[in-house]
Amino acid sequence: MNERDSEMISSQLQYAGYELTDNEKMADVVILNTCSVREQAEIKALGKAGYLARRKRTNPNFKIGILGCMAENLGEKLFKLNGAIDFVIGPKRLHELASVLEGNGQSLCIGDPKEQHLSRDFDRKLGKNKCTAFLSIMHGCNMRCSYCVVPRTRGNEQYRPMEDIVGEAKFLAENGIGEITLLGQIVNNYGGRLMPTVDGKTPFVQLLERLDVLPGIERIRYMSPHPQNFSDDLILAHKNLSKLCPSVHLPIQSGSNRILAAMKRPYTSGRILTIVEKLRKAVPNVGISTDIIVGYPGETEEDFEETVSLFDTAKFNMAFIFKYSPREGTRSAELIDDVKESEKERRNQILLQRVQEASRHYHQRFLGKTVEVLVEGHARRGADTMFGWTPNHCKVLFKASENDIGKILSIQIDSSTTSILSGTVTENAQGKV
Ligand code: SAH
Ligand code: SF4
What we know:
This protein has 14 helices and 17 strands. A five-stranded mixed beta barrel has the order 13-14-15-17-16. Helix content is 33%, strand content 22%. Helix 10 packs parallel to helix 12 (269-282) and helix 13 packs parallel to helix 14. The chain is α/β, with parallel strands linked by helices. It binds S-adenosyl-L-homocysteine and iron/sulfur cluster (SF4). S-adenosyl-L-homocysteine is lined by residues 37-38, 147-148, 150, 185-186, 224, 226, 251, 253, 291, 293, 322, 324-325, 327.
């Protein structure tokens, strides 16, 4: 989501006549697009702003801006923490950036904007050699998970009109983008109660159906869905829609029902297993990944063992594992952060090991098989080694050329590790996707 916001920020400034530079030292303006989900992310951004402040001594016109969730979360405090900061703009007000840059003195733009800008995502400039793109379908979140700062920084759910999303997807397809990833905090809640369910299909599935028939769009992904709304129509969509990729990122946070209830996540581990089973049955070789928080206040060894046991059964082939970080203003910040850092780290390592085993095992099923890979760019390993992803979201390395970027190639897999598949191009699919 932040990556997409950064694109919006740079597109907006390019339309206003600014130029992007790869060299930070050449920049007249540096914008830090920040995250507040964990404290560490904020500490890092503040450190970077401190480092940038020194540039003001030699160039008084140099400007520093803090955008994104930390801007919303800390607001005016940021000017006190670092007097060199020129502007602070929250995620709901990003569209005001160009006009803020015209002004002088310190500017603070947080809270709700005067007018909603749900279509603001449309004005985009696409980088060279780009064949995949994020597409925001909604903003904000109506859930109140006890640990999470996002509803505070991004506000309540707001859905972009379906026509705008389809229009943006067409624009992307016409400009060489073959793969889109739909974004939202709870992407499968798209439309909420404001859009009707039709023939048992939720608005999110209706949207997927419309995108599935767009010429030029070869792959559709989405993130993140919430287990509560992961309804059967979505599972059926995975079976029926040819462009919808067999890969689902399903954040579960914990395998302990006691901790899930404390987190205000309205589902049980049983519900997760049902979704995983149904998906595996409906979609061959489906890749399933997740997010986990270890060391939530009061998480006992038994609670943690339940998460491990859920991992053993569900066999997630990828997971982001986060150590719990108390965030001011959230409900859980009032609880004692009683799981020691070393214990959080131990739990983190145990789950990482589980995921690596599951991933190695998952990758092995592709050995000797031919997979379809969308070529995205150069791998770090030598000039003629390229990388791309399979529909199930496995990363593949192979020998090819820069001209192949954006094509879907058939690759025969001859080796696999926990994180990567390697193979040989067997036959070129026609044209650029
Ligand atoms: N809307 C998504 C998650 C967005 S935040 C969902 O509900 O699935 C991305 C991830 O950050 C979360 O899934 C969670 O695992 C992690 N996270 C959020 N708040 C956190 C906190 N206070 N400490 C540690 N991890 C956190
Ligand atoms: Fe945060 Fe929960 Fe909303 Fe995800 S669903 S953004 S974790 S409040």
